[in-house]
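Question (not urgent): is this output format expected?
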Amino acid sequence: MFGFGPDMIYAIPGLLIALTVHEYAHAKVADNLGDFTPRMNGRLTLNPVAHIDPIGLIMLFFAQIGWAKPVPINLNNFDDWRKGEMQVSLAGPLANLITAFVASIFFALCFKYSFAPHWLLWVKESYL
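Got this back:
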């Protein structure tokens, strides 16, 4: 999936969506728990530009490990800082699992009802 092969054009949108949704989930949970630090830093958005770290994205393609900009939080703004930090930390991976589940249902329905576009059929064949 990673690298500069011909299927890289199909991997980039998925990676950008995953990184953006992951960081947005951290910011949204912190905001819901009373910490407005992500909102004040402009991180409570689904705009990928606010979340992407250029070096982390480049490393994702070259070294197959990368990162996005961490969402800043202030633990003093939570009622229970331990519980708040745990909820904020778990929000990102949970958001990725939910996104993967929704995408898999979408792709399964596309294949089942023969609604799959040409690029999706090519991706399916290349990973079988």
